[in-house]
Design goal:
306 residues, alpha/beta, twelve-stranded mixed β-sheet, ten-stranded mixed β-sheet, 22 strands
């Protein structure tokens, strides 16, 4: 058993990923090994040639798996019970709306004490300057504030946060659940482990990551800037409106990449179980770029009506 296989099995034992997700990762290793082995020169026969090919494959696949695991888990999951910034002060909160000034940074993080019970987070854009927090099943909600920073912590349960137009950036991190973002009027940075990410009506840059879940991205017609999505153990779908010119760089290990509609330029490469596609959608000036990466899943990019 290779080091990479042991690492994947350990993640299952630690309940970091599910058995099904581990199977997809192990299949990605095997597919890479088969692809590289079939491409080796046949100047040696028998067992010696097979071991040469397998050694070369694992020397390439091993770092890819380790890098993918490290990249997937970095910044994913819960946060400390209290904010790390000592300048943030806890403020009384009993369900009232909070007025947020222009340029506010909003951070929403599941607390460490609640990770065994699961959670979900919904972030919705709202006009005006009032931020509201809702959730009948959310427990131990805490609010911290200083200047133009608002931090929300909760233990577990379902939480909905309405984000006003005055917010300049949203950061969300949970473990064991899914995050949904709808029509948020600022950049979003979202992380979860063990759940899906669903982003609708995206008009601003984003950086999203999950381990053990899938990602669904829906770009708005006015989207501009850079967007990045990364999943380990899940697949990804990105919907790009007709009329939006967009450059896409997609990479998968152990999956497939499919691009449908409006392609003006495409480059493909494949080696050792890893596929990469660089594609330009539309013929006008490129106003958006997407970087999509998955391990153990597939990537689909499709055109949609605005």
């Amino acid at each position: 058993m290779s080091e990479e296989q042991r690492e994947i099995l350990k993640m299952v034992a630690d309940r970091t990923i599910s058995v099904e997700e581990a199977e997809r990762l192990l299949r990605a290793l095997e597919e890479g090994a088969r692809n590289r082995e079939s491409s080796q020169p046949k100047d040696r026969g028998g067992v010696g040639a097979a071991f040469d090919a397998l050694g070369d494959v694992l020397s390439d696949i091993g770092p890819m798996v380790r890098n993918a695991v490290e990249d997937a888990v970095s910044g994913v999951g819960f946060g400390p019970d209290e904010p790390e910034d000592p300048e943030l002060e806890r403020v009384p909160w009993e369900g009232q709306a909070m007025t947020l000034g222009q340029g506010t940074t909003l951070e929403i993080v599941q607390r460490r004490t609640g990770v065994r019970h699961g959670a979900s987070l919904v972030i919705k854009g709202a006009p005006g300057d009032a931020c509201t927090i809702e959730g009948q099943t959310a427990t131990d909600v805490r609010v911290y504030r200083r200047d133009e920073r608002l931090h929300v912590r909760w233990a577990h349960g379902d939480l909905t946060v309405r984000v006003p137009d005055t917010v300049a950036k949203v950061v969300g991190r949970i473990m064991g659940g899914s995050i949904r973002s709808v029509s948020v009027a600022c950049p979003v940075h979202l992380r979860t482990m063990g759940g899906n990410l669903e982003l609708e009506e995206l008009a601003h840059p984003f950086d999203v990551k999950t381990m053990g879940g899938g990602i669904t991205l829906g770009l708005a017609p006015g989207f501009h800037g850079d967007g990045r999505g990364h999943t380990m153990g899940g697949s990804m779908t990105a919907s790009v409106p007709n009329g939006l010119s967009c450059a896409v760089h997609a990479v998968t290990m152990g999956g497939t990449i499919e691009v449908n509609g409006g392609v003006s330029h495409v480059e493909r490469s494949k080696a050792a179980g890893k596929q990469a596609v660089n594609v330009t959608l539309g013929t006008g000036p490129v106003v958006a770029t997407l970087g999509l990466k998955t391990m153990g899943g597939s990537i689909t990019v499709r055109r949609t009506d605005a």
